[in-house]
Amino acid sequence: MTAATHSTLFPRVPESADAVLDGLDPEQREVALAVNGPVCVLAGAGTGKTRAITHRIAYGVRAGILQPTTVLAVTFTNRAAGEMRGRLRQLGATGVQARTFHSAALRQLQYFWPKAVGGELPRLLERKVQLVAEAAARCGIRLDRNELRDATSEIEWAKVTQTVPADYPAAVAKTLRDAPRDPAELAQIYSTYEQLKRDRSVIDFEDVLLLTVGILQDRHDIADHVRRQYQHFVVDEYQDVSPLQQRLLDLWLGDRDDLCVVGDASQTIYSFTGATPEHLLNFRTRHPQATVVKLVRDYRSTPQVVHLANGLLSQAHGRAAEHRLELVSQRDKGPEPVYTEYQDEPAEAEGTARRIRDLIAAGVPAGEIAVLFRVNSQSEVYEQALADAGVPYQLRGAERFFDRAEVREAGVALRGAARAGGNDPLLDGADDLPAEVRAVLSTKGWTTTPPTGSGAARDRWESLAALVRLAEDFERAKPGATLSDLVAELDERAAAQHAPTVQGVTLASLHSAKGLEWDAVFLVGMTEGMMPIAYARTDEQVEEERRLLYVGVTRARFHLSLSWALSRSPGGRSSRRPTRFLNGLRPGSTALGTRGGTGGGGGIDRGTAAGRGTAGGGREDRPRRRGPVRCRVCGRTLTGAGEMKLMRCEDCPSDMDEGLYERLREWRAARAQETRQPAWCVFTDKTLMAIAEAAPDTESELVVIPGVGNRKLTRFGADVLAICAGRTVGDEDPGGGLDG
């Protein structure tokens, strides 16, 4: 056995079911022990949700409660499914199926197709773009490459929301969706695409789910077969489930409720693909007896990062905001987030690159640093700034700027115009280099104003606009430069980007950063029009942008920087404003006011037959914290677990009665001995300190102290109030339980 076997990469398999529970915090342990029945885990960013649900499965398997082959764990990416399988193996729970929705459905479809339909399953269409192009051509509609991508995305959205071609225009109007072109045309393309698939006996990835749903609905014998095979279900990232995926899950379950779902409505950022948090928020309504556990202990980020994340959500509104989770950092204090205003975008990129270079010099690995932006077109200026600073980088979730199809096409057009020189009529009337570039790129889709809406057309325009800005900057730096000079500059930049960038700083969009984390995160371009994006017009669209920023903030473990530029280019008009989402949070800004939600800390709600509220709600008889918890001495928002217990900052002066504190400690030790449990299971030190500081006289004063709550008030309230009043403690039943 090598030394590596005992490393963190190769941990020892727990020796028993009880050993599986070692190292879990109280709420994670509750998740692991809630093996049967409907369970809803509301898990904030960085709270160890994957750890909790894998230990739940492993504990059930190791304790003999669950048969591994009857468990199906479903998530949304192959990476996440692979990680889950790896963790289950490390915990000694082999044989459990951990798959994506599509992978699980495809296996069932392949197995049951000969019995349900006959013959072989139709060929799976790996890429539908070519067939969409043919469908458009048959409809007499000409689409370029980017428009094809948009049309394909619309077809995918329609199918996962179970919208047929005839209903597509009405669905677009009802949902206020920004269709990339006329909905009637898209409906026609969609209908023709479906016909072409039938004619050629092929299916796409959405059909895998649709056909599996159809077979399970129509063939009760097959549905019974599947339900005998899989009896226990776990669904991760439940806030991202589409209506079609939920329908498939319902059919897998049948009339059973042995289901555990995990999610966070505040991280719903994919509604444009059909994802909706409604299934998560309505879980308690559908399953009144569900156990609901909130995970709010954030092990990823420092209190300073968590404070900003909580502040962002405290200003949110809408149904998801009503059930937000208020995170409590479990890490030591770190640096405050840095807010930086720059005069223009190049200055912002250069300043960011300098700060990154300083962090690397201070010992932060380049691979533990990320620059996150709203749209992929923002990457070019940061690619260049990092290259100029000698900092390696890598792009995630996007092509390199100079590898993008529209940029390559633009380069060919500019090179041709440069060779033609004055003989190109396209350049007639262009009196400087930027004007020449604008004239050439106008043939490739660049216009003076950006297209409305999102999607490929907007991304293409942003890429071309970046080339126009580059030409303007190049002219400003080198007056009299020619189109040939600019082409040479573009070639040099493209060549420089092909250098190895292994273990480099990550450049990524906020969407592609979901599920990842770094020691240092730079959130750039934080201006109105970019965050929230300009085409976010409805309240719900704006709120999704806020959640997107929240996801970005919670990617940071230690260092967090937010920046914005007042103008696009040097010397430009300083007309931009920092994002509204930072109002009241960044220094010198004014708060817009907070909005309440259930929020509050972690805990467990075991449910009743009547059902109390929705999945986001806690116990009806438990006091709920609404909005940020503030220091009762200085008024600062508290984020640390200990500070929130004390209701004050650690370094603010204490008015604790030392004698009362010691009497409470002596009483706690006696109770712990009687109940044969650790002293902290009665009350933690911080809760005792908070009681000694408050010296409550009544039950209403005692119950609101964090760590008490109604359960402990019933069991220990008489004793504690007697001690606070200086009376002799009676012989009441000591009770027990976890510190709430």
From TrEMBL:
Among Gene3D superfamilies, the record links this protein to: 1.10.10.160, HRDC domain, P-loop containing nucleotide triphosphate hydrolases, PCRA, domain 4
Q: Give the record's GO CC terms.
A: cytosol; DNA helicase complex
Write out the catalysed reaction. Answer: Couples ATP hydrolysis with the unwinding of duplex DNA by translocating in the 3'-5' direction; ATP + H2O = ADP + phosphate + H(+)
Task: Return one Gene Ontology term, BP aspect.
Answer: recombinational repair
Q: Where is the composition biased (Gly residues)?
A: 594-605
Q: Where is the UvrD-like helicase ATP-binding domain?
A: 22-302
Q: What is this protein called?
A: ATP-dependent DNA helicase UvrD2
**What are the top taxonomic ranks of the organism?**
Bacteria, Bacillati, Actinomycetota, Actinomycetes, Kitasatosporales
